[in-house]
Amino acid sequence: MVMRFFPRSIRARLTAIATAIAALVLFATSTFMLVTVPDNLRDVVRDRVEVSVRRVAGDARAGELSTAIQVPARVHFLEVVTPSGDVIATTPGRAVHWKIKAFRPAEPDKVYVKEIWAPHERNAGETHFLVMAMSVPTPNGLVAVYGASSLTDVDRAIRWFEIQTFIVAPLILASVMGITWLVVGFALRPVERIRSKLAEITGQDLSRRVPVPDTGDEITDLAATTNDTLDRLERSAETQRRFVADASHELRSPIAALRTQLEVANAIPEETDWRATGARALATVDRLTGIIDELLMLARLDAGAVAPRRVVDMCRLAVEQVRRRKDAGVAIVPDLCASAPVHGSPVQLDRILTNLLDNATRHADTRIDLEVAVEEGRRVVVTVTDDGEGIAPEDRERVFERFFRLDSAKAKDQSGSGLGLPLSREIALSHGGTLTIADHAPGARFVLVLPRYQGA
């Protein structure tokens, strides 16, 4: 219910809040001033008249009173009157109206104060006076001392202040509202540009980015965070597109070959060697399964997925690889250290060794050297070297591109997918390591570097 009456726009809300705060401050200030200022102004007049009345009363008490009393500035008249109404002393040229003289002090030596409206001059309009009266004993008896000062200036100041309060204050509030509206609108202009740019970005084109203002404030952080989010979305979308493209590219050929084999066998069943056809079909299915496994693992790595990890001894993985390949036809010569602990996924790390040794087996002539060592106590280095024809320097980075295969590799083995080395590098990178090709003759040398596990 509260939100229904509260503006939805941030600009309107901030303007309303600023105006409300300004109104509250103006109300409190104006109330305080309206209560205190009139009394303070009257106190100034009262003090001025009281000083003059007490001075004249002192002269009368001492019997030193002059018949002509000179008044200080802003005191309009002073007059001394007997109880019978006779004027003993007065301010020359100032006539005291009877309304003022009707104000009688009740007790001697006590100052009485009263505000009276009376004519200032004879036949003049009434003036607002602050009158003080004091009864004082003299050598000739009791007399009353009167003093008065006009409150016209005080009334004028109070009236002007009230005008300021009730007319200028709304103008101030209107100014605060207008300025806040303009300032907030200017401050939110970058946000509107970000919003409009985001509205233009679609799933078909995630390459566009929102403008980042150089103000260095929260809006800059918002724009930078938005662009980081768009970067992640673009990478995710690109990963999905690449996975679809990779899958369609690599699966098309074996599926087509399998279909052709089955169609030919079905067309001439009496001449078909079904055992051989089944073996070829199974081999094709095995190849498809391997391709799909590699594509799925690449997709998970591209998406930043982290497989379960634990401490893995690369030496033990190497020993197991050598044991599985003792009948592979190419001798594997291991050179292993005592222990090479790495914190990682045992499945993925074993997959790197499998891919590297499979690649070396396809290209080696007589032997493969497998070395696992710990360097400087901080790095585990795995080296796989074959004695084949090697890889030209200009192709050493291209072999890590997906589906890229050298002509020599295609000639030796048609079943390769071109995904083993790219997958191995992605696994190495996800474990904080590297996979490169080093200079070596004859043959090729792959160097895998991983951070050594430093735990107890």
TrEMBL record:
It is an enzyme of class 2 (transferase). Its main location: membrane. This is histidine kinase. The chain crosses the membrane at residues 166-188. PROSITE patterns: HAMP, HIS_KIN. It comes from the Bacteria. Keywords: Kinase, Membrane, Phosphoprotein, Transferase, Transmembrane, Transmembrane helix, Two-component regulatory system. GO terms for cellular component: plasma membrane. Residues 246-454 form the Histidine kinase domain.
